[in-house]
Amino acid sequence: MTAARKINPWLKAALEFGPLVLFFLVFSRFRDHAVTLGGREYSGFILATLIFIPVLAASTLALWRLTGRLAPMQIATLVLVVVFGGLSVWLNDPKFFKMKPTIIYLIFAGLLGLSLALRRNWLELVMSEALPMRAEGWRILTLRMALLFLGLAVANELVWRLMSETAWVNFKTFGLPAVMVAFFVLNARLFERYAQPKDP
Known about the structure:
Helices cover 76% and strands 3% of the residues.
């Protein structure tokens, strides 16, 4: 497997999180206004989705051109954003875009669960360069991440179905990334315990 080319970490962060921040800013600006495009009226949420789709596609392409690699989650996210975001814009219905995180988290929970059942370390194939660990460590992390993704799928469904649109956007923009960061921080001891011994 070819190693990804290194790029400036600030540029990488801007390309990865910039589209989400832009979505939040556009939604915040237009959430109380209807916008007419092509003779059709759209909510601020749909407008933010319409802008988010091409920006995410451009940033993902830029990451691929700069690093020479995309993570499976980045590819899956782009495909689902285009499909479900496109449906939301086309049908002028925000629920399709709100369902996207649920679907992607269920897909990844299912894949990780399948990898455990088959005794395959698929997570190691994706993350081994960043987190060199022994096989037992990868099995534990795979189980924990499968449960995390399952929990996030349930949380997303509860938030978008039971709470306001603004609450969902805040959850998507700030809550989900914070949960992922907290997950890896809380697993720091696991990474240390099962770390591969360094070459002398």
